[in-house]
Design goal:
Layout (H helix, E strand, L loop, with lengths): L2 E7 L13 E3 L5 E10 L5 E8 L8 E9 L5 H9 L7 E6 L6 E8 H8 L7 E6 L5 E7 L8 E4 L4 E9 L6 E5 L20 E2 L2 H7 L3 E5 L6 H15 L3 E8 L4 H6 L5 E6 L4 E11 L9 E5 L3 H8 L1 H8 L1
Parallel strand pairs: 6-9, 10-16, 12-14
Antiparallel strand pairs: 1-4, 2-3, 3-4, 5-7, 8-9, 11-15, 12-13, 15-18, 16-17, 17-18
Helix pairs in contact: 1-2
Length: about 325
Amino acid sequence: VWYLRFSLPWDDPKTQFCKPFHYVRHDGGELYRIMPEALEGEEAGTVTYQCEHVLATLIDEILFGYHIVGNLGVYTQDCIQYVLDHQREKRWVLDRCDYRSQYEYGWEQETLLSALFSIAAPLKGPYLWRTDTSNYPWKLSLVKLDTGGPPELYLRRKHNLTAFRRDRDPRQVVTRLYPLGYGEGVNQLDIRGVNGGVPYLQSPQALVDKYGLIERVWVDRRYEDPESLKAAAQAMLDQLQQPLATYEAGFQELTRADWDKAEVGRRVRILFPELGESVDTFITQVDRDYGDITRSSIVVANKETSIASSLADMADRQRIEQ
């Protein structure tokens, strides 16, 4: 969920309108709602407002009880619509969905937002939840990201690249994954029935030869359908079988075109002439400072960090569950 922060002088007449849950829009962009505020009573006192994107309004409503939706004949679009139909006030409508998968989902006492985000978890390839808050009701789309085309934004040292950092973490690498779903003990759901009797998924032999056989168990009791469990596990293994490399780049947007291209999902190439190498990837996060544009930065990664981090605390969650 996107965030926006801004400050006003404490005696500014517009502060009377800046109340919690009131809406604010910056420069014709997306719509946010004001949440916390902090008053600093120095000589030139200011009030700082932290705002969250209105997509977070879906956190305020829940799917009470137990809900199962999906499986054969029920497509991704239908599952999204099922969640949105549980809004008390129809703030969000589905505009576009690029996927037609038939996975089954189970939710119990989940917020609408967490249920919505879980729908995309087993989908293949990078995706993006895109919003349009220019009109009411607001529009929500689930779109596929095209990461194979030519770069849309170039960052080069001594030109528009002001800072750079690369983190590569091989600790999250997994080459064999055992997925488990609903149930306990010998009755716990696994993927043997839909995977030729084999209880695990394994990376291609070339990756096993490169990194070794690294095994992990993934338990998610929300899954009651073996096909959906296998699809989600395969999507996770596809992301975990290579070391996660994350790049953070400070950049100076030289033109309005650069500004427009620096958006999540855009393809980017970072060039290092001195090292004789370049990185082709896509933007996963944008931090933009409207007051000092030289302090803007982007984060790019070779895969979604959310999937990698889901395994990082897996053992803790299993112990808590026990």
